[in-house]
Design goal:
By secondary structure, this protein is α+β, with helices and mostly antiparallel strands. 70% of the residues lie in helices and 9% in strands.
Length: 297
């Protein structure tokens, strides 16, 4: 019983108050890849905690027949919460995959009608679509049957060639790394928990870190200065819901490009170890609870 309560409290902390602390860790912006792993580790650890609590309560209900009524009620309520979270996870995975794929497919069809397209270097199925409008636009639409990097005439005309190349490198990085899968998976994990106990902070911060990951890839190909200049010119450009766009959080990303970290490898290693420990924590608590109960009995 105690182990189940501890695991449940750990899960609730990881999806509620925990993100309020982690969002202050600005050093995660220096290592966006490890930062994404840490946020995902928190979501996975929360799910493992609730699942472990459900296992404890199930065994508690099946193993003892002379329990007081209050203990049976608590075990049943805890088990129902676990079943709800796992059911919501399965439902949200299917819903996120289906809805996001449908939105991207419809948007891609519309873009193909309204734009001029040509092949990109990322693969035969990836194409650059240019919309005939003055408003700066730059985003990508991943897809299994063909991806699109969408820009507007306003973007092309407002950027120097090297700056435009940096924007393309940013969007192509999203497509190569399949950042859409990362965010879709995280969205499903996020929605597994009831609204009253979950926080949007992990999902929102992962979106920013994914943009920074694409920035780093563009810097390696084109350079830091061209990308920073492009962000200052088209930052804040609108991005459709199902897309990944270069204009998100442009001011924050320009500041990051202007002051690169000194030793990011050590920071990345420390954050990765923290993520590993966080994921292993619920398993360790569950194992410790079983060992303690076995030694007592």
């Amino acid at each position: 019983m105690i182990t189940g309560i501890v695991l449940l409290l750990l899960g609730l902390v990881l999806v509620g108050p925990g993100p309020l602390l982690v969002r202050r860790w600005t050093f995660l912006q220096d290592v966006p890849g490890a930062g994404v792993v840490l946020w995902q580790a928190g979501a996975v650890a929360a799910l493992l905690s609730v699942t472990g609590a459900g296992i404890v309560w199930t065994l508690d209900l099946l193993g003892r027949h002379d329990q007081p009524a209050w203990r049976i009620v608590l075990s049943v309520l805890g088990l129902l919460f676990t079943v709800q979270v796992l059911g919501r996870l399965v439902w949200s995975v299917g819903r996120v995959v289906a809805n996001t794929a449908a939105r991207r497919r419809r948007h891609t069809e519309l873009v193909d009608i309204l734009s001029r397209t040509k092949a990109l270097g990322t693969g035969a199925r990836s194409r650059l679509a240019v919309l005939e409008q003055d408003l700066p636009v730059a985003y990508c639409l991943p897809g299994l049957r063909g991806s699109r990097v969408v820009v507007s005439e306003g973007t092309v005309n407002s950027l120097e060639p090297v700056e435009f190349a940096a924007v393309l490198a940013h969007e192509e990085a999203h497509l190569r790394a399949r950042h859409d899968v990362v965010l879709d998976t995280f969205t499903a994990l996020h929605r597994a928990f009831p609204v009253l106990v979950r926080s949007r902070l992990p999902l929102d911060h992962c979106r920013i870190l994914v943009e920074m990951l694409a920035d780093d890839a563009a810097v390696q190909r084109i350079g830091r200065v061209p990308l920073a200049r492009a962000l200052t010119k088209i930052g804040g450009a609108p991005v459709p819901e199902a897309a990944l766009g270069v204009g998100n959080e442009a001011v924050l990303r320009v500041r990051r490009l202007a002051a690169p970290p000194a030793r990011p490898q050590l920071t990345a290693m420390a954050v990765s170890l923290l993520a590993l420990g966080l994921t292993a924590l619920p398993v360790a608590i569950l194992a410790a609870g079983f060992l303690l109960e076995a030694s007592i009995s």
